[in-house]
Recover the amino acids of this structure.
């Protein structure tokens, strides 16, 4: 008489059964997802090495610098003698050049503090943009 | 000659040969799918969960330390996914504690039952088991996992696994007996 009274017997019987199986294209579906995951990882790596500051930022900075120069020059002209503009055109004499330097720097002191803050923040951003991608590239392990 | 086992394929995948992951999917898809199907009771959902388990395993491959077998690690991911899904869907995870333990089963008698039908009966009896017991039986007898490994997969204690396995075995025998009796009545 055959009895099912021990583990070996049960194990043998269980080994004979056919487990439920997923659809035929299951492996294909999983592998498609795996490739997608891999592509996403590679793409994420590329995003990390992209520049933080785009073209728009540089246009704004350029406009800001132009505006800043205009403010400095025109405020200088406004406070200077009326004939200063003609003096500017006269030539590049050493005394007139040093005078203009002095007047520009004296006007810098009268500029609002916020402009200084903007310049400082911009400098910080430029620094980050320049050095951070390089550092992250070195630190991020490149996994295939 | 080089032995191409799980570790060999694992190293290949980790070194960039992603296609080698197919080996793991082909090798373990039936067990992973069976566990998921038992919990979700729906082929499509079970397939989705099995897929998610493999993707999760792929994404976490670098965290696999190799202290346990790859299959143990994969089944733990699958089991955790099942538990999460049950919680998310507010399904009831039928535990052995929810099912009344039958009386001591009679000794199993397979006389008169053709050997080719025995697997069919065992499968039918297995399907009647609650989710956690089904998983334990599958892992212990079908996948040859040790009690320690099953404890690691299910996060149960060793003694709990042993108790549940004992109960599952008894239940399985009772179910088999009932089915065989029915079969004999039909024949007679």
């Amino acid at each position: 008489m055959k009895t099912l009274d021990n583990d070996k017997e049960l194990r043998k019987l269980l080994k004979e059964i056919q487990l439920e199986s997923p659809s035929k294209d299951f492996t294909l579906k999983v592998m498609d997802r795996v490739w997608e995951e891999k592509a996403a990882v590679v793409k994420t790596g590329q995003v990390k090495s992209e520049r933080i500051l785009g073209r728009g930022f540089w246009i704004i900075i350029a406009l800001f610098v132009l505006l800043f120069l205009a403010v400095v020059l025109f405020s200088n002209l406004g406070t200077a003698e009326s004939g200063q503009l003609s003096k500017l055109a006269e030539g590049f004499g050493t005394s007139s050049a040093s005078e203009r330097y002095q007047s520009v720097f004296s006007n810098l002191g009268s500029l609002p503090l916020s402009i200084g803050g903007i310049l400082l923040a911009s400098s910080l951003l430029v620094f980050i943009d320049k050095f951070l991608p390089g550092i992250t590239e070195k630190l991020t392990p490149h996994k295939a | 000659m080089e032995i191409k086992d799980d570790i060999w394929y694992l190293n290949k995948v980790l070194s960039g040969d992603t296609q080698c992951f197919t080996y793991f999917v082909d090798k373990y898809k039936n067990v992973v799918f069976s566990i998921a199907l038992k919990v979700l009771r729906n082929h499509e959902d079970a397939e989705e969960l099995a897929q998610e388990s493999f993707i999760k395993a792929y994404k976490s491959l670098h965290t696999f330390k190799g202290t346990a077998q790859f299959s143990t690690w994969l089944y733990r991911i699958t089991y955790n996914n099942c538990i999460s899904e049950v919680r998310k869907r507010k399904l009831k995870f039928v535990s052995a504690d929810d099912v009344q333990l039958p009386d001591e089963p009679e000794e199993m008698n397979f006389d008169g039952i053709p050997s080719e039908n025995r697997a069919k009966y065992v499968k039918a009896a297995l399907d009647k088991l609650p989710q956690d017991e089904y998983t334990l039986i599958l892992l212990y007898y079908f996948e040859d996992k040790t009690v320690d490994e099953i404890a690691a997969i299910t996060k149960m204690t060793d003694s709990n696994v042993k108790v549940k396995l004992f109960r599952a075995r008894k239940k399985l025998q009772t179910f088999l007996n009932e089915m065989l009796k029915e079969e004999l009545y039909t024949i007679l």
Q: What stands out?
A: Residues 54-144 of chain A form one domain. The first helix of chain A runs from residue 7 to 16. The mean pLDDT of chain A is 70.
